Amino acid sequence: MALLAFGWSAPDPSPKSSFARCASFAVEFILFTTRPIRYRGDVAVARTQVGAEREGDSDPREREVGVSNRIFFFTGSGNALAIAKSIAAGIGGADVTPMAQHIGGFDASGEERVGIVCPVYAWGPPRMVREFVEGLKLSAEQYVFAVTTCGGTPGKSAVYIDKWIQAKGGRLDAGFNVRGDTYAAIPGMSEIAIVKLAGWLGRNHVPKQAKERMGEISEMVKGKKSHKVEKSNASVNLLASLIYSAALGRFRKIDKGFGVTDACVSCGTCAKVCPRENVKLVDGKPTWHQDCESCYACFLRCPQKAITYQGHPPNEPTHHPDASLAEILIR
Predict the structure, then answer these.
(1) Can you tell me the distance from the alpha carbon of 241 to that of 318, in angstroms, rounded to the nearest whole number?
(2) pLDDT in tens, 18-61
(3) Cβ distance 210 to 180 under 8 Å?
(4) Is the separation of the CB atoms in 79 and 51 below 8 Å?
(5) What is the distance of C-alpha 233 from the center of its chain?
(6) Which pLDDT score, from 0 to 100, does residue 271 have?
(7) Coil, strand, or helix at residue 100?
(8) Backbone phi and psi for residue 175, each to the nearest 5 degrees, phi listed first
(9) Is 123:240 a contact under the CB 8 Å cutoff?
(10) Could you tell me which of 19, 116, 120, 218 has the fewest CB atoms within 10 Å of its CB?
(11) Helix ranges, 49-179 (H)
(12) Measured between alpha carbons, how far is 113 from 128 in angstroms, rounded to an integer?
């Protein structure tokens, strides 16, 4: 969801391309700044315990005989979850599991197929995705794929995931970039100069929307076919490499822009959807503690729209229609 973390803007018709201007833009940019569910076709059954033994699966329709698949997702607006669910249905069944519940490690070595689906933040994967991948146990025999969802320019997001998996002795068999089907706009993001520059540099290499590629991707994953890891064009990737790591560090404190209005009813949804446990209720009101993941789930998912960012409430749409609140609750 690069649109929530500086991966999309309207093209700028006349940017200067010098390194000095890119560096200036980079400085401006940096300073600005569930439960798992089994899916097969139209069958969806919530699991109350992650990693429950499959021998206990009660409905044989939910999975092809002998097939064991798991797709991990990280999401704020729901685009990544919707993609994970669509692929799970398309390959005949999979456990769809939130990464945020398993940062300490997860043994997925027994799965036949393993997927990683996540948004793009500053032209790379979110901080939590790297932490998750580093703690993920894989085997040499299984098929591993990744899908990153952006607003326009993904950078080298899937390449980073491949690199982290290779560092563990594994491999990424296929890496795809798509644009999220739902644009959840964050106040002020599209006006940042470096976002405009990246949009212009990548204007001829914009990925297709997720809904246009789900059939293709699902068929490749189902057939366990290799696919070259996708990335943006060289100019976008160069720009992204200059700011990605620094930007992730700055994102920790982006929550200083959040506020709460009198519309708050102390329901605690903001704390329940936060993957970092960075939101705490104090006297019934949310407070933020500068370990933000920059997913904006608290802002986008407040039932009362009581949370503001830089003084502005969220605009519709706030989330993907196929990703319910219940599905992204972390606790």
Answers:
(1) 29
(2) 445 544 544 444 444 434 454 444 334 333 233 333 333 434 33
(3) yes
(4) no
(5) 21
(6) 97
(7) helix
(8) -135, 125
(9) yes
(10) 19
(11) 79-90, 127-134, 157-167
(12) 21
- Alpha-carbon distance 109 to 142, whole Å? 8
Secondary structure (3-state) at 181 = coil
Q: Helix or strand or coil: residue 303?
A: coil
What does the alpha-carbon distance between residue 167 and residue 171 come to, in Å, rounded to a whole number? 9
Minimal CA–CA distance to 34: which of 324, 286, 284?
324
Q: Read off the pLDDT of residues 115-153 as tens digits, 9 standing for 90 and up.
A: 999 999 999 999 999 999 999 999 999 999 999 999 888
Question: Which residues, listed in sequence order, are joined to residue 149 by a DSSP beta bridge?
Answer: 119, 178
d(CA 136, CA 125): 16
Beta strands 106-107 and 136-137: pairing type? parallel
Integer CA distances (angstroms), 269 to 46, 263, 273, 319, in order: 19, 13, 6, 15
Domains and CATH numbers, the chain: 2-249 (3.40.50.360), 252-328 (3.30.70.20)
Q: The tokens of 249 are what?
A: 């560090």
Q: Tokens for 173?
A: 């068999």
- Indicate the Cα dihedral angle 120, 122, 123, 128, nearest 10°: -50
Write the single-letter amino acid at 136.
L
For residue 135, give Cα distances in angstroms to 67, 196, 228.
24, 35, 24
Residue closest to 145 by CA, chosen among 117, 109, 167, 186: 117
Beta carbons within 8 Å of 49's beta carbon, 6+ residues apart: none
Q: How many CA atoms lie within 13 A of 40 on its CB side?
A: 16
Instruction: Cis check for the bond before 60: say yes or no (omega within 30 of 0).
Output: no
Residue pair 38/186 in contact (Cβ under 8 Å)? The answer is no
In the chain, DSSP assigns E strands to 37-40, 43-46, 69-73, 94-98, 106-107, 113-119, 136-137, 143-150, 174-179, 258-260, 279-282, 285-288, 307-309
CA dihedral of 180, 320, 330, 190, whole degrees rounded to 10 = 50
What are the tokens at 96?
């769809």
pLDDT at residue 66 in the model: 54
> Which amino acid is residue 10, in one-letter code?
A
